Amino acid sequence: MKYRDYLKDNLVGIIIYLSTIILIVLILNAFKMPIFVSIICFCIFIICGISIITISYIKKNSFYKNYLSNLEKLSKKYLILETIPEPNTYEEKILVNSLYDINKSMIENINEYQRSTIEFKEFVELWIHEVKIPISSMVLKCHNNKEKYDKAFLSLIRRLDNQIDEVLYYVRSENTEKDFSITEVSLKEVIRNVGLKNKDDLLENNIDFITDLKNIKICTDKKWLEFIINQIINNSIKYKKDKDSYIKIRTTEYDEKTVLEIYDNGIGIPSKDIKRVFDKSFTGTNGREKVKSTGMGLYIVKKLCDKLGHSIFIESKEKEYTKVLLEFGKYEHYKIVR
Prior knowledge:
Elements: H1 3-9, H2 11-30, H3 35-73, H4 90-144, H5 151-172, E1 183-186, H6 187-197, H7 199-204, E2 207-212, E3 217-220, H8 222-238, E4 245-254, E5 257-264, H9 284-289, H10 297-308, E6 311-317, E7 321-328
Parallel strand pairs: 2-4
Antiparallel strand pairs: 1-3, 4-5, 5-7, 6-7
């Protein structure tokens, strides 16, 4: 707060005060008071007025300067009330009380929004579980009666199943901690499960599924990791080359870290898109021109990896290959459930 601005805000009061001083001096002159008395009275009133305004300015400037400084430092501005000292003036009390009421109203609205969001997520999860039952039955029926159903029909059902899984894991990704079950997991077993799930798509697209897996165990959530790897494999299948396609998966260990490498010789990712593959709803050139894509798969994968404490990296060269690296550290701080 600048002194000049403070004077402008109190300009009307200052004009009235000066007018009152002039009126008093005129009255003193009217009563034939000595001129020096009028001058002394005028100077006293002026000095008192300046002192009152200056002292008031210093107090307010100190309060608001501290207030604005704390506000600027805070990343979460709504915590400003915690930094304000006990108000000394009525004006400061009005400000603090109004901020308190605003903060209280905001918290109540947020709580109401969170309740409605949680209810909606619970409904979506319940709906997905109900929908997956008939889908699983349809997949099983198609497998048992392959001669009666077209391959394209079975492919659409599998695609629908994957899309529903994507919705489920996206809904849960906000509160994954509640669904975590960290255990020692065999990477070989996880890859085998994902390979079996995608067996039909791999065969139909003539894609060789090559693995070189050591008997390595890591600490993670098996269900979430299978979803992560399944999304990566699905992308490799979607963006395959027309012939001689393959997916190679291998594990390596170094510096107390385990790396799972998923390599495919597909159409690759354009260099202009590689930095944005984990962005929400980013479909890229391939997602727009080659196959229809939601742009959510890798976004969810990255989000889940961050929650689990895993690292994910993607390397690619257009028309040559795409390599996804999943890095797992040693998690001594996890209490393993046996």
